[in-house]
Amino acid sequence: MKLKDNIGKFIQLEISGKKFIRGILIDVGSDLWVVFNGYDYLYIPAIHCQNWRYLKQDEIKEFDEITLNDEPTPIYNNNEEISLRKTLTAAKGIFTEIYVTSNQAVHGYIISIMNNYFVFYSPIYKTMFISLNHLKWLIPYTNNQRPYGLSNANLPVNPSNITFARSFEVQIEKLTGELIVFNIGENENVIGKVKGIKDNFVELIGAKEDPVFINLQHIKTIHLT
After folding, report:
1. Which residue of 35, 62, 98, 219 has the lowest C-beta tally within 10 Å?
2. Nearest to 146 by CA among 200, 195, 172, 108
3. CATH number for the domain including 193?
């Protein structure tokens, strides 16, 4: 049986980080799943789908009010095969919720998609660089919602004067000498001044000038202080 044969079925997905998502499988692409949980459409990179199963009959009862129709999902690709990159491109400028790390979602909108990361504007964290490898899911806003009920003045169209490098690694190098926060500040070792990159480790200078070396592969998000 092909995965696409399960479209319309009720499933449970386990996502990296021991997160569980239940709902109706809406679509499957080469590297992306779409699940409707009764409230939101979740666009989930396949690389983070640890396992999945069908919901049992008693588990389906909580979805009794859900009915599928022919309305397209919020990010629609005109019947093309869905993919992560196509979806991110289509989502540019749309208010979205993304989940990456630290048990907290980030709200805002995508500014630009680069080779292995994308640029995201958050009213809380301002301009952020998000590794594509670590994006767990994306949820487009619906019904003209706005992050935190903010006005256009608080959500600028071009919020940053920074020029963006093509790759995540080069973008980090460009931040040498800057005070930055990795991974939404999940611990004190990911906050400091970038000194440089060597052998796939970023050297950060902490508050008391102690160096910390962080593996590039474990950097999920970056924002400036």
Report:
1. 62
2. 108
3. 2.30.30.60
